[in-house]
Specification:
CATH superfamily: Response regulator
Shape: globular
Strand content: 5-15%
Order of helices and strands: EHEHHEHHEH
Largest sheet: 4 strands, parallel
Low-confidence stretches: none
CATH class: Alpha Beta
CATH topology: Rossmann fold
Number of helices: 6
Strand order of the largest sheet: 2-1-3-4
Bound molecules: 4-nitrophenyl phosphate
Length: about 150
Amino acid sequence: MTRILMVCLGNICRSPLAEGILKSKITSLNIQVDSAGTAAYHIGKQPDPRSVSVARKYDIDIGDQRARQFNVADFDRFDQIYVMDHSNYQNVIRLARHDNDKRKVKRILDHLQNSPYDEVPDPYYGGENGFEKVYQMLDRACNQLVKELQG
Ligand code: 4NP
């Protein structure tokens, strides 16, 4: 079983999309995907309506997800922890207890060769267009991830 955790700041915009997109591409029952945010602002809330709507456009339903906060036990519960940006990386690494925890944490766009970006930008304060851009970035990153996971 490979357990993957997608992490952003609020767990309402980017990581719920990353979770939904990756789940939609996975055919193996041996892969589990979840998401969390480093901040507590939105615990228990549904994903941002703009994330729900861009996901729906591509036939992915993320409406059942509820935000939760990343915590140190997630290092034990997950094998790979994918963060969206440098700030998420710092926030997660700060909680790591040892090198084995740290080794699990990667930036999701590090998976994309020839990508002009190394962060998935926070779309929260932007318009609808930002969510489409985030979707496309995550879709490409998840394609690469699935190849690595499923061979
Ligand atoms: P996310 O976006 O990290 O992609 O879920 C954000 C959601 C909420 C806030 C910031 C980013 N916020 O400041 O409330």
